[in-house]
Amino acid sequence: MIGRLNHVAIAVPDLQAAADQYRNALGAKVGEPQDEPDHGVTVIFIELPNTKIELLYPLGEDSPINGFLEKNPSGGIHHVCYEVDDILAARDHLQATGARVLGSGEPKIGAHGKPVLFLHPKDFNGCLVELEQV
Question: How far, in Å, CA of 22 to CA of 53, rounded?
Fold first, then answer.
């Protein structure tokens, strides 16, 4: 059901410093910041030959990233994102196997302009999983 790894998301306490580190120290291709109000984050994508790194920074006081950074002030891996062909079929299959979909269970549009869902980390070995329809 899952396809390739789309990205690994890292919550960061300083978005510009993290972007500069990837650009200057690692020589990576770094995108521009983009606000994602529906998800409460500002993101920057780092383009790699085989996947992406998504830097996450809180957008507003209600951002879910605030709580993560309170527990992890230096930042850290927040989630992994896998591609799926049909997000509704993936959701239905996962729910039938007992996996919990976060939120209402209805896909939202993610940072790539495609439907996404998040799966409860307790159902996936402590890892928050994002699914993105391709």
Answer: 10
